[in-house]
């Protein structure tokens, strides 16, 4: 580390559609497959850090699995005399240089240098989406393909699925739902929540004439951590209950068998129906959808220079007082500079307010 050089650690939240990726983890070497992490670290190269930027991912997801909100930490060491990037500038810079449209950085926060995105997580929530009434693959809207598990059945016994899910709650040895290749040293996990419910919004991509036939369902599971493919195996067993192939009480028997090779628990639900919904950390705001209020970053050093926070009802926003133009490509307006059309619109709005 050069004299006067400062290394700053950040926690970043990001989302992605997993269809095109070989999972979230980086794929090293001359392979055709590529992970989400490869694109994130490629974008981070444009930060001009003294040392290469590496992302430490909070939650690994398989090929085809999506994330509404995953997390990672990274260290950025700027050259001597340059202050650390503000979280807002870091977010903008990464999004600007990301080359894949299916990845988006949501937010960034300064965190202490000892913070670890994987070890510090207190809760992870996975969402699995099902569709019923899809007798043929071509009956599923194209916008829903690779985003849910389409079942031929017209309905599910949701009451039985909920009863079966109760047997999974609490602290258990979940090795019956663990796939081979898991790096976990212990199969014991605590499942805090397991819910089965109709999708409240159904799907906006279903045509009116199809809405009576197609129905969408959501399964959610929350724990501090999960075993390898545990969520997809539990989903498969609960779907078997919903289809009448298993009784709710048999789920308890499967759990207590600790046998991962049984007829039902060895089946794995398709990856494309699974979404990592939220990763939560202690001290990062309310436990709501994994979101972290923009005005509550953790830091072990001075905060980046921000303009005063503006409040709108319960929503708060912190704005960077300046942007680092070195990170912004030539030919693109800097984010602090409003477009002429927006400036004109704002002027007209102020003029109208004065007249009123």
Automatic annotation (TrEMBL):
Q: Which reaction does it catalyse?
A: a uridine in tRNA = a pseudouridine in tRNA; uridine(38/39/40) in tRNA = pseudouridine(38/39/40) in tRNA
Please state every residue range assigned to the domain named Pseudouridine synthase I TruA alpha/beta: 15-117, 164-282
Q: Does the keyword tRNA processing apply?
A: yes
Molecular function (GO) terms for this protein are: RNA binding; tRNA pseudouridine(38-40) synthase activity
This protein's UniProt keywords: Isomerase, tRNA processing
Q: E.C. number, please? A: 5.4.99.12
Q: Name one GO biological process term.
A: tRNA pseudouridine synthesis
Q: Where is this region: Disordered?
A: 326-356
Q: Name one Pfam family in it.
A: PseudoU_synth_1
Specify the domain of life of the species encoding this protein.
Answer: Eukaryota
- Which enzyme class, named as a word? isomerase
Entry keyword annotation includes Cytoplasm: no
Per the record, the similarity remark reads:
Belongs to the tRNA pseudouridine synthase TruA family.
Can you say what this protein is called? Answer: tRNA pseudouridine synthase
């Amino acid at each position: 580390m050069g004299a006067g050089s400062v290394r700053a650690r950040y926690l970043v939240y990001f989302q992605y559609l997993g269809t095109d990726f070989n999972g979230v983890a980086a794929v090293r070497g001359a392979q055709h497959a590529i992970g989400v992490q490869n694109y994130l670290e490629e974008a981070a190269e444009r930060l001009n850090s003294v040392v290469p930027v590496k992302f430490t991912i909070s939650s690994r997801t398989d090929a085809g699995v999506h994330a509404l909100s995953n997390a990672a930490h990274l260290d950025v060491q700027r050259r001597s005399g340059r202050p650390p990037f503000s979280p807002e500038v870091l977010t903008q810079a990464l999004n600007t240089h990301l080359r894949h449209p299916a990845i988006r950085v949501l937010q960034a926060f300064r965190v202490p240098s000892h913070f670890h995105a994987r070890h510090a997580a207190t809760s992870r929530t996975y969402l699995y989406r099902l569709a019923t009434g899809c007798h043929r693959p071509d009956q599923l809207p194209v916008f829903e393909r690779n985003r849910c598990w389409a079942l031929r059945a017209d309905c599910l016994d949701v009451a039985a699925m909920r009863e079966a899910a109760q047997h999974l709650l609490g602290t258990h040895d979940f090795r019956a739902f663990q796939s081979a290749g898991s790096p976990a040293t212990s199969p014991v996990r605590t499942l805090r929540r397991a819910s089965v419910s109709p999708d409240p919004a159904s799907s906006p991509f279903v045509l009116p004439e199809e809405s009576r036939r197609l129905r969408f369902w959501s399964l959610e599971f929350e724990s501090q951590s999960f075993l390898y493919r545990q969520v997809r195996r539990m989903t498969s067993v609960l779907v078997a209950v919903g289809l009448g192939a298993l009784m709710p009480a048999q789920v308890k028997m499967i759990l207590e068998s600790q046998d991962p090779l049984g007829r039902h628990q060895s089946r794995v639900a398709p990856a494309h129906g699974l979404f990592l919904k939220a990763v939560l950390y202690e001290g990062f705001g309310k436990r709501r959808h994994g979101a972290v209020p923009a005005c509550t970053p953790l830091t072990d050093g001075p905060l980046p220079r921000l303009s005063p926070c503006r409040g709108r009802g319960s929503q708060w926003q912190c704005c960077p007082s300046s942007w680092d133009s070195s990170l912004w490509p030539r030919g693109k307006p800097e984010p602090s500079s409003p477009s002429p059309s927006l400036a004109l619109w704002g002027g007209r709005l102020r003029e109208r307010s004065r007249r009123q």
